[in-house]
């Protein structure tokens, strides 16, 4: 067994111990095939008002510009699929499953910090950084390159054993590690369930999403008024959206997560439409104190809830 093989074995054992469901390894190199795709996506203004996505173009494609001397990208999967779905009635106001509990950035960042610490204890000083949706890293592309799945028609990474209800995280390190083989096959086949189900027609072609039409973008990232054209099309989503995942056949393999921090508070579990409509800023701060729902702030959530009652 070569040192690079041993490093791969060690990294995967640490990942398992820290509760990650899957761990894949890829060589840190320029994502040449992604450059024209990213450029076209930006040129079509599919990023909407998320101007930051046009920044650091080179860094998004080249991990050595994020970590000097980078040799390896470690991709990690962490399950967030809930045991019970909220709300209990389909006509009630909804929020994306990933936001039921504590903010995933905080939960996973703590694990990644420990991951690097353990790695350094076992191997010695290495240069590296950890990422969880926090920097210009093309996480789905790296996860595919590391053999963790393929990019579905809804542009999300799909894994044959657990679907897509999971977070992705990365370690970019200057350690030589034996890479995994990328998954070459697309297992979506002729299925178009996600494209057909999207109420705002955000999936413009297989694997390409016009973010400016996506309900997640409209309810979280957009800071101004939601355009009138989406009135009556939001399907009661007040924060994020799971439609394209809920209809995906691969998500029949989803299993409840084992992370206590992702369990919803009792108060949130009992939230009714009336609670959403009458919610005060004090209630918002209490219920969503450590939640990703804080991102659009109280006024953003109120805007979303009010928009849901708008007629077509």
UniProtKB/TrEMBL annotation:
<feature type="binding site">
    <location>
        <position position="191"/>
    </location>
    <ligand>
        <name>[4Fe-4S] cluster 1</name>
    </ligand>
</feature>
<feature type="binding site">
    <location>
        <position position="60"/>
    </location>
    <ligand>
        <name>cob(II)alamin</name>
    </ligand>
</feature>
<feature type="binding site">
    <location>
        <position position="223"/>
    </location>
    <ligand>
        <name>tRNA</name>
    </ligand>
</feature>
<dbReference type="GO" id="GO:0046872">
    <property type="term" value="F:metal ion binding"/>
</dbReference>
<feature type="binding site">
    <location>
        <position position="214"/>
    </location>
    <ligand>
        <name>[4Fe-4S] cluster 2</name>
    </ligand>
</feature>
<feature type="binding site">
    <location>
        <position position="216"/>
    </location>
    <ligand>
        <name>cob(II)alamin</name>
    </ligand>
</feature>
<dbReference type="GO" id="GO:0008616">
    <property type="term" value="P:tRNA queuosine(34) biosynthetic process"/>
</dbReference>
<protein>
    <recommendedName>
        <fullName>Epoxyqueuosine reductase</fullName>
        <ecNumber>1.17.99.6</ecNumber>
    </recommendedName>
</protein>
<dbReference type="GO" id="GO:0051539">
    <property type="term" value="F:4 iron, 4 sulfur cluster binding"/>
</dbReference>
<feature type="binding site">
    <location>
        <position position="248"/>
    </location>
    <ligand>
        <name>[4Fe-4S] cluster 1</name>
    </ligand>
</feature>
<dbReference type="GO" id="GO:0005737">
    <property type="term" value="C:cytoplasm"/>
</dbReference>
<dbReference type="Pfam" id="PF08331">
    <property type="entry name" value="QueG_DUF1730"/>
</dbReference>
<feature type="binding site">
    <location>
        <begin position="241"/>
        <end position="242"/>
    </location>
    <ligand>
        <name>cob(II)alamin</name>
    </ligand>
</feature>
<dbReference type="InterPro" id="IPR017900">
    <property type="entry name" value="4Fe4S_Fe_S_CS"/>
</dbReference>
<keyword id="KW-0408">Iron</keyword>
<keyword id="KW-0671">Queuosine biosynthesis</keyword>
<comment type="subunit">
    <text>Monomer.</text>
</comment>
<dbReference type="GO" id="GO:0052693">
    <property type="term" value="F:epoxyqueuosine reductase activity"/>
</dbReference>
<feature type="binding site">
    <location>
        <position position="198"/>
    </location>
    <ligand>
        <name>[4Fe-4S] cluster 2</name>
    </ligand>
</feature>
<feature type="binding site">
    <location>
        <position position="154"/>
    </location>
    <ligand>
        <name>cob(II)alamin</name>
    </ligand>
</feature>
<keyword id="KW-0170">Cobalt</keyword>
<keyword id="KW-0411">Iron-sulfur</keyword>
<comment type="function">
    <text>Catalyzes the conversion of epoxyqueuosine (oQ) to queuosine (Q), which is a hypermodified base found in the wobble positions of tRNA(Asp), tRNA(Asn), tRNA(His) and tRNA(Tyr).</text>
</comment>
<keyword id="KW-0004">4Fe-4S</keyword>
<feature type="binding site">
    <location>
        <position position="241"/>
    </location>
    <ligand>
        <name>[4Fe-4S] cluster 2</name>
    </ligand>
</feature>
<dbReference type="InterPro" id="IPR017896">
    <property type="entry name" value="4Fe4S_Fe-S-bd"/>
</dbReference>
<keyword id="KW-0479">Metal-binding</keyword>
<keyword id="KW-0819">tRNA processing</keyword>
<keyword id="KW-0963">Cytoplasm</keyword>
<dbReference type="InterPro" id="IPR004453">
    <property type="entry name" value="QueG"/>
</dbReference>
<feature type="binding site">
    <location>
        <position position="188"/>
    </location>
    <ligand>
        <name>[4Fe-4S] cluster 1</name>
    </ligand>
</feature>
<feature type="domain" description="4Fe-4S ferredoxin-type">
    <location>
        <begin position="179"/>
        <end position="208"/>
    </location>
</feature>
<feature type="binding site">
    <location>
        <position position="168"/>
    </location>
    <ligand>
        <name>cob(II)alamin</name>
    </ligand>
</feature>
<dbReference type="GO" id="GO:0031419">
    <property type="term" value="F:cobalamin binding"/>
</dbReference>
<feature type="binding site">
    <location>
        <position position="133"/>
    </location>
    <ligand>
        <name>cob(II)alamin</name>
    </ligand>
</feature>
<comment type="pathway">
    <text>tRNA modification; tRNA-queuosine biosynthesis.</text>
</comment>
<feature type="binding site">
    <location>
        <position position="194"/>
    </location>
    <ligand>
        <name>[4Fe-4S] cluster 1</name>
    </ligand>
</feature>
<feature type="binding site">
    <location>
        <position position="157"/>
    </location>
    <ligand>
        <name>cob(II)alamin</name>
    </ligand>
</feature>
<feature type="active site" description="Proton donor">
    <location>
        <position position="133"/>
    </location>
</feature>
<comment type="similarity">
    <text>Belongs to the QueG family.</text>
</comment>
<keyword id="KW-0846">Cobalamin</keyword>
<keyword id="KW-0560">Oxidoreductase</keyword>
